[in-house]
Design brief:
alpha+beta; Alpha-Beta Plaits; 7-stranded antiparallel beta sheet; 18 strands; globular
Length: 550
């Protein structure tokens, strides 16, 4: 089935999600005393700037080694590859913001061709934008023409889609254009898994994961994408580079390219660690009196080397949110959290049922060695912090829920609601301070409509230094000020995260949204190092122009 090119996923999934999200939308409409009617989101008529015959000839001559069939000047192709799934691009599609369209879309079929394209582009001062699956949710890439780089070509990587599985070495070698879902299906057929599942898993490419330093929901035990990489092959304007993270001594090139957001080169091939599929998955669910109890539980698990694969710690606002939004109700009239609440009321005396429950979910995987001792001790730790275990018949709800956010964002956008999420890493002792400061700031902010906005937090991973938290916010659009409202709220969020020693780039790159804030965190020598790398690999500045301030 063909994906939407201008919003998330497949048409049938949007149709299904629309009916699932309606109760949430209706409740928000009541809370905000607004009708929240669907806006007309038919794609406005576009006329991409015509490409002159002279420019077409220049591009064909520049990339003469690429067959003409794989250089497209089609208005439709250029348009589809010049926009992504970011909130800003949604505004552009509805006519609320202007945007630029690339001059051509080039489709290489090998690493060598990508290297050739970059070398030729550098020689002729042509701006290059890599295109994997086109999600670009943090706007890591954006067309920005300059006097020197007035011609822009998109390098479409989806023909780089080869997979080679080596079970003997427990690794898989993939080209960068392959999607995460396709790779995982191939591995599962062979009895293995990559174990990396970011929110954009279904519709994003492996090269994109590396370029943005993706962080999946099984990172508690297996780490982010950077932790499962063995080698990376990168085409740069200066030639091919292969970074071997298993080489003797410390190899700096792996960390340099992981999370570089296409600023230094285009990742074309990656070798990744794989592992056998687990024999069994085990789950623990609990209601907690407050968020502090959840943080203490996670820290105790870490200190006692009890290693769940994934975690979800939801605050009370998130519990209420999921009470309204549930892709798979337990029955026709009852959602998951209503069911959980009833379980708690059956199992516990009234005084033990939290008035504003927080929710903890732990997932464990069992291989050749049993994990019973971990499960027993984890439950003891939860009880020591006044948590109460719950049992639920079907955990598939969570498996589906973790990929639903982008669909929900699009659905709410269609009803004039701004929905955005930002993830960051925070030190253990700063988490609750960050949440309190952000709530206070937004409650008085006119762009958040003060008490009308919905804000909640989900802790989805942790390590020795701190926790990885996702902040989600929803608020009615301000007509005529949609982009200003969006950018203003994200600036507040990022500023407060930095104030509390948060790291925005630790989870999913910085993109255009947090570029300024990222550089404010850097020491002078760190910024100088980045500029040195840029000069080394891309001295003509043809890749991700404006990413590093001059």
């Amino acid at each position: 089935m063909k994906e939407y090119w201008w919003k998330w996923g497949f048409p049938d999934q949007h149709h299904t999600c629309s009916s699932e999200f309606t109760p949430l939308k209706d409740t928000l409409a009541s809370r905000w005393n607004m009708p929240l009617l669907p806006r007309a989101l038919a794609i406005r008529p576009f006329t991409a700037p015509a490409i002159s015959d002279k420019k077409k000839e220049l591009i064909r001559d520049t990339f003469a080694n690429i067959t003409t069939k794989r250089i497209s000047f089609s208005e439709d192709t250029r348009l589809r590859h010049s926009l992504s799934k970011s909130y800003t691009d949604l505004l552009k599609l509805t006519g609320k913001e202007p945007f630029d369209v690339a001059d051509a879309v080039i489709t290489p079929i090998s690493t060598e061709e990508v290297a050739y394209i970059l070398a030729q582009a550098a020689e002729h001062q042509i701006q290059i934008i890599p295109y994997g699956a086109g999600t670009n949710i943090v706007e890591a890439f954006r067309i920005r023409r300059t006097v020197k780089n007035n011609t822009c070509c998109i390098v479409q990587l989806q023909q780089l889609n080869k997979i080679s599985i080596s079970t003997g070495h427990l690794c898989v070698t993939v080209q960068a254009g392959i999607s995460g879902a396709v790779l995982e299906n191939k591995l599962n057929e062979a009895g293995y898994t990559l174990g990396h599942f970011p929110t954009c898993f279904e519709h994003s490419s492996i090269g994109g994961w590396l370029a943005t330093n993706s962080f999946g929901n099984q990172a508690v035990r297996y780490g982010g994408i950077a932790h499962i990489v063995r080698t990376i092959t990168v085409a740069t304007p200066q030639g091919l580079v292969k970074a071997d993270l298993n080489a003797a001594g410390w190899n700096y090139l792996g960390p340099v390219f992981t999370g570089s957001e296409g600023n230094l080169g285009i990742i074309t091939e990656i070798q990744l660690k794989i592992r056998p599929l687990p024999r069994k998955k085990r789950w623990i669910e609990a209601l907690l009196p407050d968020n502090s109890a959840g943080l203490h539980i996670l820290r105790a698990l870490l200190q006692q080397d009890i290693r769940p694969v994934s975690v979800a710690l939801l605050d009370n606002e998130a519990v209420q949110f999921h009470h309204l939004y549930d892709p798979e109700p337990t029955n026709e009239t009852e959602d998951i959290f209503s069911f959980i609440r009833k379980q708690a009321e059956k199992l516990l005396p009234p005084e033990k049922v939290p008035e504003q429950p927080h929710y903890l979910l732990l997932q464990f995987e069992e291989y050749e060695h049993g994990i019973s001792a971990w499960l027993v001790r984890a439950k003891q730790i939860i009880e020591q912090h006044h948590g109460r275990m719950l049992n639920r018949p079907n955990i598939d709800h969570w498996e589906k829920l973790k990929y639903q956010w982008p669909y929900l964002r699009d659905y709410l956008f269609e009803h004039e609601i701004l929905a955005e999420s930002v993830s960051c890493h925070l030190p253990w002792d700063q988490v609750e301070k960050f949440q309190k400061t952000l709530r206070k700031k937004l409650s008085a902010d006119p762009f958040f409509l003060k008490n009308k906005g919905l804000l909640y937090f989900n802790t989805f991973s942790y390590n020795e230094e701190g926790i990885f938290t996702e902040t989600r916010l929803m608020v009615p659009d301000l007509p005529g000020q949609e982009l200003k409202q969006h950018d203003h709220l994200l600036r507040i969020l990022s500023a407060i995260a930095i104030q509390h020693q948060g790291k925005l780039e630790s989870v999913h790159g910085t993109g255009q949204y947090f570029q300024k804030e990222y550089f404010l965190q850097l020491m002078p020598d760190q910024e100088s190092f980045l500029k040195m790398l840029k000069q080394k690999f891309d001295p003509k500045n043809i890749l991700n122009t404006h990413k590093i301030p001059e």
